[in-house]
Design a protein that fits this description.
18 helices; 6-stranded mixed sheet; 6 strands; single chain; alpha/beta
């Protein structure tokens, strides 16, 4: 397929996604390609975006379609823009700079993608790269390398790198060019969402939480009267000649449920965990006894921090205001479970329901399943929400089966729609 053919295909994909393009804009885009450096992917993308996209709201849709039709394997930057390696210092320099990140994305896929072994799904290889790259630590190193770069700029660069990694993997796997774009926001996968999509999903949390809270309130109101007490009703009917005018009910005993939310905020699952925290915190009127904890290789409570930030906390705020980084900043469930029992054991009791969010990946360390079993014995129930596809569980360093054996339920939660349904069911 020639570059012109890909431009025409790009226009058709955009139109199917609801972006008005038109024949004239397509012709302009094909003509513009003649004056662009095809070896410089960023220049090509900016040129096509300028000719095909007329509204700011369609930029993310264009980027998704462009990445599918122009993967980095086809349009790599020149060797001058490619990093010589993927050491922490070189990565920090690339992320903190303003150059093309395509070379870095390709280098990361080369080193961590695992495409030279067993080939699996696109998402599997993308997640391998993101976990190994550790985006949170990458962002911290970039800020140290160049303190003048704002957090907003770094987040945009990290988001661009995630998109390029996915495009590079897709190009190597030969994914189809006609994959649909423009999914409904509630069906966008957390682990593949762009920064703009994550921001829009975060804004959608509040109205979704209000609907869910009203639904829970109605359900509680319906249950308040309890079941009919037949024996007491018959006794009362004696005063009215056997007619049961005064119905008696079994009054339900008030159940003061306690909820503990335990979220993994390492690497690529951090955004997913923050959505869970935001949704649960927004339901605070219906869940008054909730305590929230976050962890990487240490655990810390953020209940008060969530209230202070009006439930709009960012990953970098957690890293700066908590002590979730212990020995080396790589997920260590064994250390986290032992610390939770030792320092926050008062949060765990027979009335406690625990919601855990994370991918259960432990970097091939001790699973800490004995401590996890002790936590399960002390609590009423434990529900684990995993943002990865179920067929990726128990692969590489995932210990989902070990932890799931002591959970009440385990759920695959990849989108906002699934998260809301799951939280409604659990609470």
């Amino acid at each position: 397929m020639t570059v012109a053919d890909r431009v025409v295909q790009l226009s058709r994909m955009l139109e199917r996604a609801g972006v008005p393009v038109g024949v004239a804009a397509t012709i302009d885009a094909v003509r513009a390609v003649e004056h662009l450096d095809l070896l410089h992917r960023t220049e090509l993308r900016e040129g096509l975006r300028a000719t095909l996209v007329k509204q700011p709201g369609h930029r993310d849709t264009f980027d998704a379609a462009f990445d599918r039709l122009f993967p980095t394997r086809i349009h790599e930057p020149s060797d001058r823009g490619r990093p010589r390696g993927t050491s922490p210092e070189q990565v920090a320099e690339q992320v903190a700079g303003d150059g093309d990140l395509s070379g870095l994305a390709s280098a990361l896929v080369d080193e961590y993608g695992g495409l030279d072994g067993e080939v699996r799904s696109e998402q599997h290889h993308v997640q391998r790269v993101l976990r190994a790259a550790d985006l949170a630590r990458m962002m911290s190193r970039a800020r140290i390398h160049d303190p003048s770069v704002s957090p907003a700029q770094l987040r945009a660069r990290i988001d661009e790198l995630k998109r390029l990694v996915a495009a590079d993997v897709r190009g190597r796997l030969g994914a189809g060019d006609d994959t649909a774009v423009g999914l409904d926001l509630v069906d966008v996968e957390f682990l593949h969402a762009s920064r703009a999509e994550l921001a829009a999903m975060r804004a959608a949390i509040a109205p979704l939480a209000r609907k869910l809270a009203s639904r829970l309130a109605r359900r509680r109101q319906h249950r308040r009267s309890g079941r009919v007490n037949v024996r007491q009703t018959m006794r009362r009917s004696l005063a009215t000649g056997g007619a049961p005018f005064d119905v008696a009910y079994h009054r339900p005993r008030p159940h003061r449920a306690e909820l503990v939310v335990l979220c993994d905020v390492s690497g690529s699952v951090a955004d997913f965990s923050l959505f869970t925290l935001s949704l649960v915190a927004a339901l605070s009127a219906e869940l008054p006894r909730t305590r929230s904890f976050v962890f990487v290789d240490a655990v810390d409570e953020i209940t008060e921090l969530l209230h202070a930030t009006d439930h709009q906390i960012e990953p970098w705020q957690i890293m700066r205001n908590t002590k979730v980084i212990g020995r080396d900043g790589h997920t260590d469930h064994a250390a986290v479970f032992e610390q939770l029992l030792a320092e926050h054991g008062d949060a765990l009791g027979p009335n406690t329901a625990v919601i855990v969010t994370g991918d259960a990946r432990n970097n091939h360390r001790d699973t800490g399943v004995e401590a996890w079993a002790r936590i399960a014995q002390r609590c009423r129930r434990i529900d684990w929400l995993n943002p990865e596809p179920a067929d990726e569980w128990d692969t590489y360093d995932s210990e989902m089966a070990s932890y799931g054996a002591h959970c009440t339920t385990v759920h695959e939660v990849r989108t906002l729609r699934q998260l809301v349904i799951c939280i409604e069911h659990l609470v």
